[in-house]
């Protein structure tokens, strides 16, 4: 038997096909609770069934766990794959029941391989990376809000303190949120203010801030703006601590993870990048080749020539893991500047006339080749230049 499940937040829909591909009854909804799952298992029966469903958000995880525990095979699909399968069938109507039937039909016709969840360490890294990204977004949003308040209440502040995301800036603004507050304070008192636990603001900066505050055009803003600035600085300090805590947790997991420690041997890849690679793909060695791994990330050319359109240069294909590409961008920029094994490769491409960005994308692909090699061979990375040959 083959089955397809259309996943939703509170109610899923199950469709079943027999071994000849004929429907078994009508598509049946079941709820996201124990009673609903009992209904699901009863309808599937005891024999192993190939169940196909999309990896939609996080809603599929409980269904997956229950089905695999019951002995069924579950194939998770990228929603784009199932959508194109339905488009090929010229399906014009979209309902939960039709989607579930299409997934069951996909299982009957294509026989996809069952999916397997990653181990606990990979799952923990995935959750930590996502949680860190959300905190970082909140942190950056708060910085923008603080910029607005400083622009209104003490626009001269950023002439002397560069970067409102620094501990120096938030320590000062937490105690003196506006130009009015700075003007009412003495330079000596501000100079003794500590930031980053041990560092002092200092007499020179304190004198500059007080003098600028007394002439500031934002002195007319009062208590309401002070309250907002203080709250934002408190939030930023809290999120800094949480981000540091997450970074320590990620480093601890990577240090105890075989593949994670090996990835750190690739020049310019630190714990954060290694964590994002493992969180995104689990083990890169699961791909059949380094080229397949690069295609998954999306570092492949997509040449388009049709009719009168005769493009000479292939642009980057739109498909792929954009989040992982972003995570690799800074390590690649650092490697082409500092690491001979990739710097030599990058410089040769530039010398041959390749545009700067094309050479950077090629360098990223070469780094992915190194990552795949480390994962496949389970050996530390050794740059080719160390063996006496050109990179």
Structure description:
The chain is an alpha+beta fold. The protein has three domains: 2-110, Nucleotidyltransferase, domain 5 (2-Layer Sandwich), CATH 3.30.420.40; 123-251, Orthogonal Bundle (Helix Hairpins); 289-387, no CATH class. 58% of the residues lie in helices and 10% in strands. It has 17 helices and eleven strands. The chain has helices at residues 34-44, 60-69, 79-88, 96-110, 120-153, 157-160, 167-175, 179-184, 187-191, 203-214, 223-255, 258-263, 271-281, 290-297, 322-338, 340-351, 356-377; strands at residues 2-6, 11-17, 28-31, 50-54, 73-77, 194-195, 199-200, 301-302, 305-306, 309-310, 315-316. The strands form four sheets. The chain has a five-stranded mixed beta sheet with strand order 3-2-1-4-5. Strand 1 and strand 2 (11-17) form a beta hairpin. Helix 15 crosses helix 17 (356-377). The longest helix is centred in the middle third of the chain and has 34 residues, at 120-153. Residues 261-346 form the Transposase IS116/IS110/IS902 C-terminal domain. This is Transposase. Residues 3-155 form the Transposase IS110-like N-terminal domain. It comes from Neoroseomonas alkaliterrae.
